[in-house]
Design goal:
The protein has 210 residues and is mainly alpha-helical. The chain is built from 11 helices and no strands. The N and C termini lie far apart (65 Å).
């Protein structure tokens, strides 16, 4: 116990959250109890509440953590010296990597996000998740504006609308490929990666300059 007292609070929060994440994936969020999380993490229930007030706060922490990783993936893709076409495919692959690393939080992170922080009760992690999401949107805005300036994308694109549309279509495509692999292989004679590449390029063709 003395060893844990010397550790930073963030270490304890991370350890608890990772233990909770395993239970959430195995049992679901609703059926997982704080008692089970404490046992899985190796803490007393009283100590658990020192670091997280409730289960919702743990979920928020995990979603935020996954969103930060998504931002890291996208930043890496966009900071390369590749051309717009290659960067677009790297963005798509970043989304695939995100879904593969965080399948449980993939849909949650792209689901409802609270934007009314003044008139609603919310966890601090919700505000941070929103902030990270806005930073991701800024990265994507710069990417599309650069593509327009270089004549790769259509000049009249509504960039904000395109970003939301792309997110929706990419997430749906990736979710479909992850859950319908056998059907895609049998009916389309395509591997998961081949199916995704075709889908990615269909979206790309819809916004690029002819």
């Amino acid at each position: 116990m003395a060893r844990r007292i010397k550790e930073e609070p963030g270490v304890h929060r991370s350890r608890i959250a990772m233990a909770a994440g395993k239970l959430f994936e195995a049992k679901g969020i609703k059926t997982t109890t704080m008692d089970e999380i404490a046992k899985e993490a190796g803490y007393s229930k009283a100590t658990l509440y020192v670091y997280f007030q409730n289960k919702e706060e743990i979920v928020g922490y995990l979603v935020l953590h996954s969103m930060i990783r998504l931002k890291e993936y996208l930043t890496s893709a966009l900071e390369s010296r590749k051309n717009i076409n290659e960067k677009y495919l790297d963005i798509c692959q970043a989304m695939v990597a995100y879904e593969e690393e965080y399948p449980f939080y993939f849909s949650m992170a792209l689901d409802h996000i609270n934007v009314d922080f003044e008139h609603s009760d919310c966890e601090e992690s919700e505000k941070e998740t929103f902030r990270v999401g806005e930073e991701i949107n800024s990265l994507m805005t710069s990417f599309f504006l650069t593509g327009i300036e270089e004549g790769v994308f259509k000049s009249r694109l509504d960039v904000k609308a395109v970003i939301f549309t792309i997110w929706g279509m990419l997430s749906g495509l990736i979710h479909l490929a992850a859950n319908k692999q056998e059907y895609i292989s049998r009916e389309l004679c395509l591997s998961k990666n081949e199916f995704l590449r075709k889908g990615f390029m269909l979206l790309y063709d819809a916004i690029k300059e002819k």
